[in-house]
Amino acid sequence: MFKSFSMELGGRTLTVDVGRVAAQANGAAFMHYGDTVVVSTATASAKPRDGVDFFPLSVEYEEKMYSIGKFPGGFKKREGKASDNAVLIDRVIDRPMRPLFPKDFRNDVLLDNLVMSVDPDCSPELTAMLGSAIATSISDIPFDGPCATTQLGMIEGEFIVNPTNDQKLVSDLALTVASTREKVIMIEAGANEIPEDTMIEAIYKCHEVNQEIIKFIDRIVAECGKEKMQYQSFGVDADLVQDLMTKIPSEEMEKAVFTDDKMVRDERIAALTDKLAEEYAEKPEWVAQLPDAMYQYEKKTVRKMILKDRKRPDGRQIDEIRPLAAEVDLLPRVHGSAMFTRGQTQILDVVTLAPLSEVQKLEGLDTNITYKRYLHQYNFPSYSVGETKPSRGPGRREIGHGALAERALVPVLPTEEEFPYAIRAVSETMESNGSTSQASICASCMALMATGVPIKSMVAGISCGLVTGDTDDDYIVLTDIQGIEDFFGDMDFKVAGTHKGITAIQMDIKIHGLTRPIVEEAIRRTRQARLHIMDDVMAPCISEPRKQLSEYAPKIDMMMIDPKKIGDVVGKQGKVINGIIEETGVKIDINDDGQVSICGTDQEMIDKAKAIIHSIVTDIEPGQVYTGKVVRIMNFGAFVQLAPNKDGMVHISKLSEKRVENVEDVVNIGDEVTVKVIEVDKMGRINLSMKPSDLGTNR
Prior knowledge:
Elements: E1 3-9, E2 12-18, E3 27-33, E4 36-48, E5 57-63, H1 84-97, E6 107-117, H2 124-138, E7 148-155, E8 158-161, H3 165-170, E9 173-179, E10 184-194, H4 196-224, H5 238-247, H6 250-257, H7 262-279, H8 284-307, E11 324-328, E12 336-342, E13 345-354, E14 360-361, E15 371-372, E16 374-379, H9 396-409, E17 422-431, H10 436-451, E18 460-468, E19 475-479, H11 483-488, E20 491-497, E21 502-509, H12 516-541, E22 555-560, H13 566-570, H14 575-584, E23 587-590, E24 595-600, H15 603-617, E25 625-634, E26 637-643, E27 646-651, E28 672-680, E29 686-689, H16 692-695
Parallel strand pairs: 5-6, 16-17, 27-29
Antiparallel strand pairs: 1-2, 2-3, 3-4, 4-6, 7-8, 7-9, 9-10, 10-21, 11-12, 12-13, 13-17, 14-15, 18-19, 18-20, 20-21, 22-24, 23-24, 25-26, 25-28, 26-27, 28-29
Helix pairs in contact: 1-2, 1-9, 5-8, 6-8, 7-8, 9-10, 14-15
């Protein structure tokens, strides 16, 4: 039965049709936000997936080019692999939804969002986030929702709920917040050095709006919601857990996990597991569940140590950061490099500069962003965690971590006018034990400064964790979480910023939301930590951008020419510009406004190319002096090339102060000579002189 529901959201109408499309999905919502249309569905397999020890949730955000009236690019003219933007939206949808499903649920669940029409002022990603929450809430899939999501901008200090495309272009804040009825469950932000207090206010402005959306979803569920299905629970046998706790006393487990070396801890746990496997050899059903049971026991031990005993597995204080180290110039031939180490987390970042013609061109649904000048890419090889998995290219995690670091650094980059380069930073993970994305921000900031990119401020990032008890007041926030605290804790709250304020936030949690005191403490802790990192570790290594680029980095010179002269510089079929490139070895790019970018590693050749272009676009006038090559000889004189496609003639009488019988007695083809323009006649013919008296010399 088809039903339609509407509410006003950010000054535009959000309409949800239920029962109109996708009737065979467990839950489906036909979402309209302005003229943006997204089909959001939630489906679950009838039976649990065999052999998995996790909840198999998949999220898809499908960008269809017809939604903006365009053909897809490429030979096939068909949408293919998901874009990086689509992957990032998948992750933002996943993060608030995943904690609300039962932890022991093993049925496959797919949240699919098909973008069918895009209104530039009504965000399709926001529509999909709301659509996934609604489709799941009305389905029979077990889900402890609903949750709601709001985007927020800030222009001249004023908050804008769900900003339009034009507003996003001038906004100092791009904030996305998801909430349950009582708590914030996900935060994603990019900001132009927003102060912490302002950011907290913005987060809870979103939270207020989310409560109105949740009331709207409740109304839809009340009229259209299905009864939730019964499912097979995959909890670990309680008798097994109880038995292994008697065989491994809590003191022994604490000793196993209490170390600052991840590999040592893993070896100790593996030894205990192997010992129990031998003892349970006659109970194969227990042996099969033993890894999960040990995981639960280890998790319970770590959480108790932190929450009750105020002891961290590596012995640090609650607000203490692991040992830090920073260095630059590790790689001699690259344009810039830096390494940042925090405990057993280590990132080596490499920066490469290129002309603006190398920017990444984007094909997607966001009409605001057609290219990226700054690319931050993150790699996570298996050796960084002591494993042997071969590389198969970047996955969703790698794309997400790279995008987070990119978002953190974009606000401090120079403009194209200030620094006319495309910039690529690649973060290679050398070792991983917690929050490599934030180490990537620190390493990249130093690498940019080592390269000579004139960034406006230093940026650092750090992550806070959380362990909660039975009540909202029973919790502890941990500064700089390592892997075990992330695995067994409840939160990974990443914040990056400058001395002035925040540039990026990403918050992942495993519980049903955070109270305001937790959010405020995490933001306060991360500020203290990042100031320490910048002032006491990064600045002593490199405190400001270098004034000179590396000798191996390309040099770029800019010049403006009359747009009407572009054709003269390019020449027929590119003959002129290709000739300049071949002669000088530089790379030349010209835009429609007449801006010319000349890029090369040899400054002398850059200057030469610039001089040639200048000669092409400059009108020849009497009195001007040129140096050019003799390109043709006739009985009556020599022709000298002043610029590509611009030749002038030196009459035989103007070759010398003395009488000249034969032109070849003075010049030959290929000679480089200095000449003066004597006349440009009505036919445009250029008459030259080599006489010293005309040149004003004594030769």
